[in-house]
């Protein structure tokens, strides 16, 4: 479980942004309307609330920054020293101290101005004190703007640090640059560390995780370090030194015996002896890498002597550890990679168990345990007895578990992808298996091939037609009755029925051809005036028929829309004129409404028109007399 997670820290805004956030929140969360008519106590409370609310928001924001950033004295020494190496703890503490000072100053400013607001004697005085208080708070925040920017840079960098648990089981890889450290961590974990054929590719700590005996181990890849004095080492090298100093881990010191990294075995041995004090009380394994380029047996005697000395020093780091402290491997061919991982995990696990056994807590726990060690009572062999039914059931179950070959297995057996092509026809159910792979076109020259597959299809079609003809003849014989099969009386009745049927058909045809069944021709299509009453009169007179009744009937049924509309308009005009006259007489003659209705009811249209004109003239004269009076001019 990761103990420290710096990715969840709150973003630190700049000084200007922090002021905008707090003041906008104050404007939204506090009342904004005040009048001169308010009581002075109400005015004081209004502005005191704004000052206190602003101070509370500044205090909460700054307190969140101080609490979320780790305190170097309270966290694990590994992270404390690492933050000191990366950011210089003096500058870090100074920035946090300025934030804390600003928080206290804002609280003091708020308290002072709240006391002054209690004695404000007017709206203007209270408003001026509020503006002064908020202005001084803004000045304090602007002064700590550089510290806020510095802390935001640190937060962004800390969020990119790997999540390392200092108390977990750890494998630590160290050595000169370009000796194969990153390639090894990529092989045994899911980490994706950049690997390049030049030195100093890894410039920070990288973490991966692997499993051994159902336990999780974290593997840390460190940047390469050089053999030089402690004061001359840069920040990248100090990250590795910090991890070696403060993490309880199994150390894998990588040694490039081929010399392809650019450093000789003597230089790598000198680095080992210069930092061997950091390996004390830690399981240490010397890993000779790149054996595919140079086997360990092929190096010179001087180099072999140096390697032997390193091995002996590695055995001294932890007393009582078993196993070989010198291992060989090649990350290119993966020869010996798993052996190195298992050996390191085993030595670390043994050391952790040994340390726990020596602790005081273990003495209290051992008194509660009793380990029974059974001893043989005689030399008689007692083999395992398994019933026959169980053996048969196991054999049957094993036979059922036999895996039938899948298409993937067949593909691998027959050359792999791109060579083997799965057949989709091998499961067809046909009369002969050799027909399965036949190539059969579906469409040929625009025709369906399956329509011409049967060679006897024409003969069968002819037989089908003959059968259809025979069946149709039988049906016709059943429907149509011939006269030879009927008696004379039945033949006579059949003739009468057929004659009646013929007459009905003829009448229907005549009825369809008459003018009554023809559709009415609209006038817009009768431009030549062919369908008129005069034409009807001429045609009927030529036949010797009086056309007057037909012409009158046609004229009575064909009233034009224009005539109907004119009559309707005249009727509406007459009704409106009557209504106006009734209203005017009721108003000006002081008669009852019923009396006015009786007077107007018997008038025709001309009389109504004359009466309306008279009414209009009387009204006009009356209005002119009113407006020509001396007092109304």
List the helices and strands and how they pair.
Elements: H1 15-29, H2 40-68, H3 77-87, H4 89-117, H5 123-143, H6 145-159, E1 170-175, H7 181-188, E2 206-212, E3 215-221, H8 235-246, E4 250-256, H9 265-274, E5 284-289, H10 301-317, E6 326-328, H11 337-358, H12 360-366, H13 388-400, H14 407-413, E7 443-444, E8 447-448, H15 457-479, H16 488-513, H17 533-542, H18 548-557, H19 561-588, H20 593-601, H21 605-627
Parallel strand pairs: 1-3, 1-4, 4-5, 5-6
Antiparallel strand pairs: 2-3, 7-8
Helix pairs in contact: 1-2, 1-5, 2-4, 2-5, 3-4, 3-8, 4-5, 4-6, 9-10, 17-18, 19-20, 19-21
Q: How would you describe the overall organization of this protein?
A:
- The protein contains 21 helices and 8 strands.
- The protein has helices spanning 15-29, 40-68, 77-87, 89-117, 123-143, 145-159, 181-188, 235-246, 265-274, 301-317, 337-358, 360-366, 388-400, 407-413, 457-479, 488-513, 533-542, 548-557, 561-588, 593-601, 605-627; strands at residues 170-175, 206-212, 215-221, 250-256, 284-289, 326-328, 443-444, 447-448.
- The protein has a 6-stranded mixed beta sheet with strand order 2-3-1-4-5-6, with helices on both faces.
- A hairpin with a 2-residue loop joins strand 7 (443-444) and strand 8 (447-448).
- Helix 1 (15-29) packs antiparallel against helix 5 (123-143).
- The longest helix has 29 residues, at 40-68.
- The radius of gyration is 57 Å and the shape is flat.
- The mean pLDDT is 82.
